[in-house]
């Protein structure tokens, strides 16, 4: 039966690795030009079927590795690395309901961040990051309003947004939704590496998030609903914070002509979802070795500890791609199928086995960080902008 299913799912797809392209691009995975006009960090791009990657490159405070695997018909993940004299900005945007919100955030969030920090002579604080998120949310809401008569479905598109900013010797993490960043930290001189989750996730499957929602909406017994074993906000969406999803924030968009499955049976008296990120700061320590930023598609299959162990026990080059492949192998194992068969399944159908997955691994050069220096030239990389 499995073989029959595989024959149905496979659509003339060559296995990963039959063709590998390695070529320089202008700072974008998949082509199309970098944002901000910077370089690609001296990295080279590769492609294996639905997988795009940069095995190793340089950014302001060290080296990076980057990879994206597509599962949806249209890739809904976006990501970027921006690095220069101001520091380093990393963003992972995991869209849902379509790619538009993730693309919008990738187009605008860093631009807002740079403009706001310029007003304060380059200083980065939690407030500057908060303002950048707020301006991006306001901009996307305005776009939904502008397109309401022609593209009302834009009101039901949203994105999780995970951002890391390295400024001087401080790391800021800002998050909406359920993407995650994990720190690999050396344990003294033991040679071991500990995994520390730095981001706070906003998913109704987490008990603390359900408690938070119930406190915010004490008069709504249906604020979280268990459907098919999954907790959802209003029985519709898993994440409680995002950019976009304006149908769950503004009553004027929770009506026809959006699809009935998004429309609430009762009037919306206050926003149900929030675009206010949780922001934490972390003083960088010489034992901090690397960061793994990834959309939830990775963490669905790999624990924090497993991901850190994979990065720690292999060469830096190819770290992100290695994590993606480990997640795919686990996804195949869960479905009692061979990894080689999973690789043959085309996009869209592939979504039944795993999500789009984006991974960025940042390795720290503490000599640069302690001296307050950054590597030149500036780096500006966006992944997946042109992927369809």
The CATH topology corresponds to Phosphatase 2c, domain 1
Number of DSSP helices? 9
**Rg, please?**
21 Å
User: In percent terms, what proportion of residues is strand?
Assistant: 25-35%
Morphology call: globular
User: Considering DSSP H and I runs of 4 or more, what fraction of the residues is helical?
Assistant: 25-40%
Query: Which blocks of ≥5 consecutive residues have pLDDT under 50?
Result: 1-38
Using the coordinates above, name the CATH class. Answer: Alpha Beta
Q: Biggest sheet, in brief? A: 8 strands, antiparallel
Write out the strand line-up for the largest beta sheet, numbering strands in chain order. 1-3-4-5-17-16-10-11
The domain tally reads 1
Q: How many angstroms does the end-to-end distance come to?
A: 31 Å
Strand elements, count? 18
| Average residue-wise pLDDT | 88
| SSE pattern, N- to C-terminal | HEEEEEEEHHEEEEHEEEEEHHHHEHE
Named CATH architecture: 4-Layer Sandwich
Class based on secondary structure composition and strand pairing? alpha+beta
What is the name of the CATH superfamily? PPM-type phosphatase domain
Region (Disordered): 24-43
Family: Belongs to the PP2C family.
InterPro entries: PP2C, PP2C_BS, PPM-type-like_dom_sf, PPM-type_phosphatase-like_dom
Enzyme class: hydrolase
């Amino acid at each position: 039966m499995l073989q029959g299913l595989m024959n149905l799912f496979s659509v003339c797809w060559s296995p990963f690795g039959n063709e590998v392209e390695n070529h320089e691009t202008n700072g974008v995975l998949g082509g199309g030009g970098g944002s901000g006009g910077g370089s690609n960090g001296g990295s080279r791009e590769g492609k294996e079927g639905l997988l795009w990657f940069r095995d190793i490159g340089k950014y302001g405070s060290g080296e990076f590795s980057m990879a994206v695997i597509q599962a949806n018909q249209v890739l809904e993940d976006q990501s970027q690395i921006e690095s220069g004299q101001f520091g380093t900005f990393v963003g992972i945007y995991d869209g849902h309901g379509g790619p538009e919100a993730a693309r919008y955030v990738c187009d605008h969030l860093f631009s807002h961040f740079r403009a706001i920090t310029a007003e304060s002579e380059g200083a980065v604080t939690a407030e500057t990051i908060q303002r950048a998120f707020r301006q991006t949310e306001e901009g996307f809401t305005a776009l939904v309003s502008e397109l309401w008569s022609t593209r009302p479905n834009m009101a039901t598109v949203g994105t999780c947004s995970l951002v890391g900013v390295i400024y001087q010797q401080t790391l800021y993490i800002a998050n909406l939704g359920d993407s995650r960043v994990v720190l690999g930290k050396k344990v003294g001189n033991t040679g071991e590496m500990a995994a520390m989750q730095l981001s706070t996730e906003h998913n109704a499957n987490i008990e603390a998030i359900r408690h938070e929602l119930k406190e915010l909406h004490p008069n709504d017994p249906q604020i979280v609903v268990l459907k098919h074993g999954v907790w959802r906000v209003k029985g519709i969406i898993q994440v409680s914070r995002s950019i976009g999803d304006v149908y769950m924030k503004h009553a004027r968009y929770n009506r026809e002509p959006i699809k009935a499955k998004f429309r609430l049976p009762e009037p919306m008296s206050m926003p149900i979802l929030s675009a206010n990120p949780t922001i934490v700061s972390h003083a960088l320590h010489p034992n901090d070795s690397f960061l793994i930023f990834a959309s939830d598609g990775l963490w669905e299959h790999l624990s924090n500890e497993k991901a850190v162990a994979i990065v720690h026990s292999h060469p830096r080059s190819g770290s992100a791609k290695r994590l993606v492949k480990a997640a795919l192998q686990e996804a195949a194992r869960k479905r009692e199928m061979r990894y080689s068969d999973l690789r043959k399944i085309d996009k869209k159908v592939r979504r039944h086995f795993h999500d789009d997955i984006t991974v960025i691994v940042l390795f720290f050069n503490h000599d640069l960080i302690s001296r307050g220096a950054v590597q030149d030239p500036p780096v500006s990389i966006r992944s997946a902008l042109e992927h369809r």
